[in-house]
Amino acid sequence: SSSVYASSASLYGSIAATGSERYDPVAASMAGSAYYGQVPNGANGGAAIYDEVPLDDYLRPHRPAPLAPPPLSAQQIQRRLDKMRQQQQQQLEGAHQLYAPVPAEAQREQEKLQQLMLELGSAAVEQDVRNALRAASGDVQLAMRHYKIDQLTRLGVAGRPQCEQALQQTGWSLELAAEVLLQQS
Q1: Which of 78, 128, 134, 148 is most buried (most C-beta within 10 Å)?
Q2: Any stretches that span the bilayer, and where are they (predicted)?
Q3: For residue 123, is it within any domain?
């Protein structure tokens, strides 16, 4: 295999053998062209390609940087912490309420909620049913499906898409769908 490399080396020749010029000279007709001018070399004492940037105030900031804010007092820190705790508490209290209706719609939502609670039976949790009803924008049938999918998902046996598919296969029967999912796992 070394003979193959030796023959290819002789085919291409050595770069050193071609001299210091690695490229063909520019044709005489193009020599005066603006495209092929000689680039000055700084080592030969030629002019620099770029001008020096003048030392001028143009690049300096126009005004001093603003001062750091004064350190907070213990009282200010305590007030901020209390305010943050209060906001977190309000978020936690409001987290169970999903898309609360306007007061005029509250009575109609309550009627739909009672209807769903009757259909779902005594095991249904009112807050979960209310959240399903609000997620379904008041559509009772869709809320029923939301609630059942949520209940199956809480079992932790399968993800939401698999739970919905199992419910569709069993005619939206929560018990049958749970059996199907438990058998598959």
Answers
A1: 148
A2: none
A3: yes
Rounded to two decimals, the pTM is 0.45
Q: Contact 167/156 with Cβ under 8 angstroms?
A: no
Q: Is residue 158 part of a domain?
A: yes
User: Could you give the CA distance from residue 49 to residue 43 in angstroms, rounded to a whole number?
Assistant: 12
Answer whether residue 130 is part of any domain: yes
Residue 152 near residue 176 (C-beta atoms within 8 A): no
Q: Rounded to the nearest 10 degrees, how much is the dihedral formed by the CA atoms of 18, 22, 24, 26? A: -140
Q: How far apart are CA 162 and CA 159, in angstroms?
A: 5
Residue 118 lies in a domain: yes
Structure tokens belonging to residue 126: 């009112």
Note down the domain range covering 134. 103-184
